[in-house]
Amino acid sequence: MSAGTPRPALILDGLRKEFPHRRSLFGKAEAPVRAVDDVSFFVQPGETLGLVGESGCGKSTLARLIMRMMAPTSGSVLVDGQRVDTLLPSEVLAYRRKVQMIFQDPYASLNPRIRAGDLIAEPLLIHGLAKGAARAARVRELADQVGLAASSLTRFPHEFSGGQRQRIAIARALAVSPRIVVADEPVSALDVSVRAQVLNLMADLQAERGLSYLFISHDIGTVAYLSQRVAVMYLGAIVEIGPARDVLRRPRHPYTRLLLEAVPVAHPRLKSRRREVLRGEVPSAANIRDACRFAPRCPMATERCHIEVPQPRTLDGDRLVACHFAEDTPDLPKGLAA
Amino acid sequence: MPVATDLLDIQDLTVTFGGGSSRVTALHGVSFDLRKGETLALVGESGSGKSLTALSIMGLLPPEGHVAGGRVMLGSEDLLTQSRRDLVRTRGSRVSMVFQEPMTSLNPVLTVGRQLTEGLEFHRGATRAAAKARALDLLKLVGLTQPERRMRQYPHQLSGGMRQRVMIAMALACEPDLIIADEPTTALDVSIQAQIIDLMLDIKERLGTAILLITHDLGVVAEMADRIAVLYAGHVIEIAESLTLFDTPRHPYTEGLLAAVPRLDVLVAGTTARVRLAELPGSVPSPADRTNGCPFTPRCPIATARCAAEMPPMTPLDAAHSVACWERAP
């Protein structure tokens, strides 16, 4: 990192999480499942890094590791230059003032028996940030910032629509004035017409507060809207990372390209193209061998891909791609790449 | 497109829930038609009534639901007045359904093979051996590898994408004229979704099966639909051919919905500045809060006093495009 660029808000360095494989009664122990396998990236202050991948690729495990909801097998997480993975249990609470999370399902992540105002006050209480009248004033201020009417604060979660519930969840996350927000599919459970409200709110709050977002989603359109940079995850590893527009316009990893081709078109005029279909399904993370993890499904795979793990390489200046043949990846068909 | 002949004609379908003072109307006089071999998408958000429409066609409304009026004509028969016995014969044989969640709609204690042959034996009177041979063909048709092995497997042994293929095979078993697909790809990953969309397009092309596609996902609609009917709060508010609807939507709700979705192609092609997404204010009203007026009034940028008082009727703009809006089709 050259001088002059700000220190990243979040750095992951060689992060790895293994889950022991279930052992059969007489069989020998199998290799553990590598849910997150040597993941390294950074997020700058005020930046959104979009994390894209299909189910089972390890994106939610990654979020849990960053939130310190579980400990990594190896590697480190740094927030503001401070190591997170070695925190003592007594230090985790203080850490969570810096990093907060928004979950996918606002129906499941809010306690149904607690009123909206108390839900927003809860983090202030837990972290001992404001008392009495000051706390009440802070709750009203937060509610106002996320677009909730002060008069609605006495209501229970079930009395709100999905979009409003997600606003409550955002107000809770912002209550402790974090620097980083990890958002795991924050709009996936919402109606289409309400998603734009929440996405715009997140963009506004970021501009006002200089927040960093790690925005996790399977919906590439949403990621493209909010993110400056995009990371693509497959079977526990980042296969491509770089500026959002470049990665989505000219993907260099064959998985990124096939994933983009699979995204339904935005307009029926574009549908005449016959896409190249990503064949098969994501294999279990237990089956990773010493090879490119995408090789079994890759249309470009050669012998080398089956015997040698591709290391991430820098391409086009600020892009990292883990593919032996990234230069040969064909461009997206016209129309989709516009 | 071949000569358009109506396969399904729904007129004024009205469905209510509950009784007495707690009675709410969930579908308000829904009308549309579906031609042979056509894919019509019913698009709407949660609470719009799109799934209820499908359940009404299949005679599968929950016990507290009640059809208060209208007709569902399949050919010359009204499915709403069919006897129970005839309805059972129609279901699965002439109309079949693919549900969103294949894990909950497949029977977990029967093998895939048994679930496929069951319908063939019941509806077609096939022998065990004939049904089994046909089931194998169906599994091949929907692109499942190792069909003999799949026949012996149980749903939990299959992945989500494979289960949805089995659902589609079951729906095709008796060569129905119409398949109702209720959010068929919503529970699937994007790469599996693309496979299932391609499969359904392929089946439509090869077998000429009409599809009533129910979804909230405008991308899936753009890929699959010939025509689109937009539902809002239990009303059909716009119907048009797919290209027309995407190019020149006329109802302010349709406009807002299309503008609120981030378009990957536009975002990637755009210049450096991030364009703010258009927002539709507020959210879908609950069925209990509905008035006599247009249900979109509180969120509508062009609403007038008349809109709050009186629901506009569906008015044709041309032969293929109708809209229910006082301002756009007076």
Automatic annotation (TrEMBL), chain A:
<keyword id="KW-0067">ATP-binding</keyword>
<protein>
    <submittedName>
        <fullName>ATP-binding cassette domain-containing protein</fullName>
    </submittedName>
</protein>
<dbReference type="GO" id="GO:0005886">
    <property type="term" value="C:plasma membrane"/>
</dbReference>
<keyword id="KW-0813">Transport</keyword>
<dbReference type="InterPro" id="IPR017871">
    <property type="entry name" value="ABC_transporter-like_CS"/>
</dbReference>
<dbReference type="Pfam" id="PF08352">
    <property type="entry name" value="oligo_HPY"/>
</dbReference>
<dbReference type="GO" id="GO:0055085">
    <property type="term" value="P:transmembrane transport"/>
</dbReference>
<dbReference type="GO" id="GO:0016887">
    <property type="term" value="F:ATP hydrolysis activity"/>
</dbReference>
<feature type="domain" description="ABC transporter">
    <location>
        <begin position="20"/>
        <end position="260"/>
    </location>
</feature>
<dbReference type="InterPro" id="IPR003439">
    <property type="entry name" value="ABC_transporter-like_ATP-bd"/>
</dbReference>
<dbReference type="InterPro" id="IPR003593">
    <property type="entry name" value="AAA+_ATPase"/>
</dbReference>
<keyword id="KW-0547">Nucleotide-binding</keyword>
<dbReference type="Pfam" id="PF00005">
    <property type="entry name" value="ABC_tran"/>
</dbReference>
<dbReference type="InterPro" id="IPR013563">
    <property type="entry name" value="Oligopep_ABC_C"/>
</dbReference>
<dbReference type="InterPro" id="IPR050319">
    <property type="entry name" value="ABC_transp_ATP-bind"/>
</dbReference>
<dbReference type="InterPro" id="IPR027417">
    <property type="entry name" value="P-loop_NTPase"/>
</dbReference>
<comment type="similarity">
    <text>Belongs to the ABC transporter superfamily.</text>
</comment>
<dbReference type="GO" id="GO:0015833">
    <property type="term" value="P:peptide transport"/>
</dbReference>
<dbReference type="GO" id="GO:0005524">
    <property type="term" value="F:ATP binding"/>
</dbReference>
